Amino acid sequence: MNIYIRSQDRDLCKYLDDRAQSDLNRFAREIEYPIGAIISKQGDKITSFMVVIEGELALASESGKIVGRVYTGEMVNELHYIKDHLALCDIRAIRPSRVAVIAFIDMDRFVSKDPERAARIQAAINDSLCLKNIRLTHWED
Amino acid sequence: MEHPLLHHLNQEEIAKIEAISKVVNYEAGDLLIRTGDRSRDLICIDSGSVAVMIQTSDGQVKQVSELGSGSLIGEMNFVIPSRRTADVVAVTPTRITVFPYLGLTELLKSHPALATKIFKAVNEALAAKYLNMLDLS
Known about the structure:
The complex is a heterodimer of chains A (about 140) and B (about 140). In chain A, about 35% of the residues lie in helices and about 25% in strands. Chain A has about 140 residues and is of the alpha+beta class. In chain B, helix 3 packs across helix 4 (about 110-135). In chain B, the strands form 2 sheets. A 4-stranded antiparallel sheet of chain B has the order 1-8-3-6.
């Protein structure tokens, strides 16, 4: 979305200024996962964004087929913030990973008082969902 | 018929966005979008239906989908600057509403609450596209 200029490294915060990013970070908690850890399972109720601070995650079907990857700086679970449904895939750490978790309810609090922040978060999600669509069309098993 | 882009808007916001839109009518067989065009306009189909056609690597033209009233076209191009990746041809007499990129983005820059709702509607379209393409077999 090029009505905003990227000013932060992490994709979810990319269009926020330093102060807004700092405010959002107050809601985040960091979790470390060893390689191979299953972070969430197909069918789970998803209630949080995850931002990969270090490492790499994979989206895998029930049969184990990898259908997507999430790299350092990128987000996952934004689809569930937009469309409330149960997880379609497992999420696994395929490298030792550190993620920031931000509950959807906290994101709602963060954006509720400032429409400019809300627009910039939705724009960041625009970009992320476009990227995921493009990667699907280029994906090879 | 409610446009998917306007789904979250109140009457005042709808009036703002409709002020920058334009309605265009096509006959069956007319080309709405040509592959390679640089347009980033968002398009809603008001009535009728269109075919989305791509050219394969061996030069064949293949229909990849047919879209009807209520469909949104151009959401990927709206977000990411690239050329159009498919031809879109009217299958039946078709009426569309075009939201020109420049007019829309100028409006959204100065109305963040409206921008939030429009971006959310675009996200819903992008999420639906992703779920449609995701192969979990």
